[in-house]
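User: Show me a protein chain along with its predicted structure.
Assistant: Here is one chain, sequence first, then structure tokens.
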Amino acid sequence: MNKPDDTDDFKAAAQDALRGQCRAILDEEGLKQSDLARESGVAYGTFTAWMTGNYAGRNDRIAAEVARWLKARIERRAAVAEVPRAPGFLRTPSAEGFLQVLMMAQVLPDISAIVGGAGIGKTMAARHYRETSPNVTLVTANPSTSKANTILGAVAEELRLTERNSTRLYKSIGAKLVDAQALIVVDEAQHLTLGALEQLRALHDIYGVGLAFIGNETVHGLLSGGRNGTEHAQLSSRFGYRVVQRKPRERDIEMLLDAWGVIEAEERKFLGMIGRKPGALRAVTKALRLAGLMAEGRPRDLGHIRAAYERQTRAPETGAEGGKS
């Protein structure tokens, strides 16, 4: 597909060429005109009228908008194509431990927890377990799903339940999962209120549903019973298998670098340093993806990796010429 003409003077032939490019996208990608209108920012009615040559307004102005969108679309896709693909799930020693926690929570069933620092592979392990094990529901908590009814709504959505009444919702989830040796995994569980955690615990107590909470040190506080050890006793006393791990293991980092094809000793040393900092394995992958893009088709080297990491960790500028904004 050729790039659209950059000129703002769109004669009939130039507009026909643009329409042809739009039709090619519709055919090749199976999209609808409403999709293209949404992408381009042109109102649907205007876009469809322009596509058929029946728009009563300034067709050249619509053509200019479409041309700018097509050009940006082509450039974005070219950039994405150059970004190195990250390795998929790796069965690192840490991942094996996380999978064991999830399996125990489902099989027993029990309430388990994975507590750890950012970027050590907790979420990837949970996604892999869901993809490879039956009757596993994975939801990711956030501030908007922190309360009991909202986190239950997120679970129900994953289970494709249509019930919306907060009282009946809990029973609908229980009826769906009882006697199914099911597991509910809640990632980013530090966002949950105590009431939400207790509501999920009730699913375990009444319906025998396995639960696994994944999160940071805040979750660990709940597991320990709160500040005095008894504040959340009803919840903390029910936790069984758990793992608390703040950093990746050395073998985790080595396996990730092997998967990325990093052979050069100095590159491995520098990336190992990144992997031991906050962000851990995720920061390593981000640095390597950006370094590959910065290499612009040439072999990636230590200079690219250093520059990529510096760009990731550089503090944002506070204003022009060093002034505060």
